[in-house]
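Can you give me the bound-state structure? Components:
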Amino acid sequence: MCNNGVVPTESSRVRSMNETRDRILDVALDVLGENPDAGMGEIASAAGVVRRTVYGHFPSRLDLVRTLTERAVTEMTGVLAEVNASDAEADAAWVAFVARLWPVAHRYRVLLALRRGEYGEAIHGLLGPFDELLADLVQRGQDGDVFARHLPADTLSQLAYGVVFAVADSDLPNGAPGTRAATITSLLTLGVPETRAIALVGDQP
Amino acid sequence: MCNNGVVPTESSRVRSMNETRDRILDVALDVLGENPDAGMGEIASAAGVVRRTVYGHFPSRLDLVRTLTERAVTEMTGVLAEVNASDAEADAAWVAFVARLWPVAHRYRVLLALRRGEYGEAIHGLLGPFDELLADLVQRGQDGDVFARHLPADTLSQLAYGVVFAVADSDLPNGAPGTRAATITSLLTLGVPETRAIALVGDQP
DNA sequence: TCTCCATTGCACACTGCTGTGCAATGTACA
DNA sequence: TGTACATTGCACAGCAGTGTGCAATGGAGA
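Here's the bound-state model for the whole set.
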């Protein structure tokens, strides 16, 4: 015994396994992003692996999707909590949120599609904490009179979040040029006046 | 021979058949609205008919969906063309459009979900004329400086249209109370200032 | 060298859907 | 009364996907 923990037990062995596992997850995100109905075989092929191997890492398709969702929630709540912690005005916080969330959330955009359908309930449950943080931010904006009140905060937050990705989808896959337009549009939907929205976004990407 | 045409040939026979056919279409809209992945069996049961009978009227599932879409396009373009014909300002026209389209489009909301997925291409093609009319209206608004220009008219029109139904979905199935909020939100997304939007909607439903 | 084990390749059973064929059955119409 | 036909009930073939079992294979570690 030359180690007292569990980490460096079989360095190359488990590393290779984790690489496979991570590759499957990464590729699954891409494949499902293009076609939410893609099967395990399709994902396996894209990952350069046999279908049987995928089942070795994820007992069922639901397990795979669940793992993907957990990953997404971890990353996205991290960003949102950070933005929420600042004492900036809610509309400025929203701009920062979209700017920082964009790259990660764009990868996980498939979860929006998967929310309706077979695994809808499971995904919805896991996304709960994120949804709450989002609603909190919008609520703060409504309390501070920077966001409109024509809809309750939880509905409005989901809507504005959806608008961001609706713009993304209608854009070239290379989402870069759309970030600015998406941010402005979501601000408008939140009830921020156009002049203020443009001023907030400034000359960002 | 007591008739010279083809219409009143078998009054009760064909009427009964058309009733069955229409009932299947109506019910299919409801069933697919709740679950876009519903099968032919599910639709048949809901229509009080055997699966085999549905295939008697519609050779394939795609035929059913296509018929549904054609129906929707006919009704919706009718409403939109009428609104477009008036010489009202574009934002006022949009309000009238949403108000008049709401009942019919709400029934056909499933087409938005079906647009992604197996029949996406077919539906998209049939919806083309409607999409163009919609883009024309938004373009008119942009030209007249009542709508924002942060997005091209075709993208913005789709987005605003989607917002209307996103609000509807997050509402009670009884969509009545949401019409006002949905109209206001879509106007905001189009870049109409909040005060103007509220003034336009007035004390409508 | 020998052992462990992730991966592979193939087999299989199961489910759920689509679309078709065909012989009843019942009802409107001549 | 008899015919036409929409509907039914059932059977069947096909397809696509899921999840499992099991014997090879091959590379990394003891």
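A couple of observations. Chain A touches chain B at residues 36-37, 113, 116-118, 148, 150-151, 155-156, 158-159, 162-163, 166-167, 170, 181, 184-185, 188-191, 193-194 (CB under 8 Å). The two ends of chain A are 54 Å apart (CA to CA).
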